[in-house]
Design a protein that fits this description.
This protein is an alpha/beta fold. Strand 12, helix 7 and strand 13 form a beta-alpha-beta unit. Strands 3, 5, 6, 7, 8, 15 and 16 form a 7-stranded mixed beta sheet that branches. The protein has a 6-stranded parallel beta sheet with strand order 11-10-9-12-13-14, sandwiched between helices. The protein has a 3-stranded antiparallel beta sheet with strand order 2-1-4, with no helix packed on it. 30% of the residues lie in helices and 26% in strands. The chain contains 10 helices and 16 strands. The structure holds NADP nicotinamide-adenine-dinucleotide phosphate. NADP nicotinamide-adenine-dinucleotide phosphate (NAP) binds next to helix 1, helix 3, helix 4 and strand 10.
Length: 311
């Protein structure tokens, strides 16, 4: 048996509970992983708050798409060995003390990377790689990143800078220092945003990433970026369809980019392992305090990753 987080109904974080469930033996091409840390993402709470539907047959729900941990057992033909330190992405039910995953979901954890950082690297990192690739961001570009101090935003800022781009990133206030430290130029979102971006980037903006999903982010992107194919959103799927900008991820009409995101794992592990990409951890919670972690995340102003640890 192992401890897992379950959403037992649709609703707020009060529907979350920790229960014992059988962990099972790994089958062919599978491994069992003792979880050291699990990354928290907005998709986790969206899965039980009703944002993705309220099918009663899908309850109770396991949560968690990314973990770091140690391989404790392997099935036939497994590509990993007992004792390997790994990052699992994309996994299903990662909010657990132990779980069985396909070995195709595992990449080696760089020894230099902490468990909590490793658990928070992949979902946001792969999303940021997808967004930068889809909009063709490269050397010499100026890119506007909406939501620069969030989980995906901090990855996008750093990865864009590594590609040789100049980054103007929107923040609500106290994320400014963090965005600046990681190589971006913060501007405050809210009324007058387009003018503040023009002042920060008088030669113009080549591409924009909406990592928030607000009308303001889409409207300002449309106002400042001439080529709509160089504007991407990971959250405003309705606006993407209406305005002809790129929609990325799991939303309606969006490009999931599965192959590109899977391929990005190796690059992300390499960059984080050699210290060129920082995973900012904004909070660490024991598994039993998952509801508190989600309440903090749902408030919408985290600066970095929230992480669960199973003890
Ligand atoms: N499609 C995909 O593949 C995909 C993948 C990952 C995430 N997502 C979605 O993308 C969104 C962000 O995810 P995340 O993990 O980065 O979330 P997060 O870590 O919770 O970050 C949210 C950030 O948004 C900023 N923010 C809040 N209101 C804002 C506003 N009105 N304008 C500009 N910034 C604002 C906050 O910064 P301040 O404190 O500065 O306000 C906060 O740092 C979520 O909706 C998530 O579901 C989609």
């Amino acid at each position: 048996m192992t401890r897992v987080v379950l959403a037992t109904a649709y609703g707020g974080p009060e529907v979350l509970t920790v229960a014992d469930r059988p962990v099972g033996e790994p089958g062919p091409g599978q491994a069992r992983v003792a979880v050291r840390a699990a990354g928290v993402n907005p998709a986790d709470w969206k899965s039980y708050t009703g944002a993705f539907g309220t099918d009663p047959a899908a309850l109770p729900k396991r949560l968690g798409f990314e973990v770091s941990g140690v391989v404790t057992a392997v099935g036939p033909d497994a590509a990993v060995a007992v004792g390997d330190e790994v990052i699992g992405f994309r996994v299903s039910g990662g909010y657990a003390a132990e779980l069985v995953v396909p070995t195709s979901a595992l990449v080696p954890k760089p020894a230099s990377l902490g468990w909590e950082q490793a658990a928070g690297l992949m979902l946001t990192g792969a999303t940021a790689v997808h967004a930068l690739t889809a909009t063709g961001v490269g050397a010499g570009d100026t890119v506007l990143v909406h939501g620069a101090a969030g989980g995906v935003g901090l990855m996008a800022v750093q990865l864009a800078v590594l590609r040789g781009a100049r980054v103007v990133g929107t923040v609500g206030g106290d994320g400014a220092d963090l965005v600046r430290r990681l190589g971006g130029e913060p501007v405050r979102y809210g009324d007058g945003l387009a003018d503040r971006v023009r002042a920060a980037a008088p030669d113009g903006v080549d591409a924009a990433l909406d990592l928030v999903g607000s009308d303001e982010a889409v409207d300002v992107s449309l106002e400042l970026v001439a080529d709509r194919q160089r504007i991407a959103t990971i959250a405003a799927f309705g606006r993407a369809a209406a305005d002809g900008i790129r929609a990325l991820g799991g939303g309606p009409g969006a490009n999931p980019g599965t192959e590109l995101r899977d391929a990005a794992r190796t690059e992300l592990a390499g960059l984080a392992g050699d210290g060129r990409l920082e995973v900012v951890v904004a909070g660490v919670f024991p598994l039993e305090e998952v509801a508190a972690a989600h309440r903090q995340g749902m408030a919408g102003h985290s600066h970095g990753k929230l992480v669960l640890v199973p003890w």
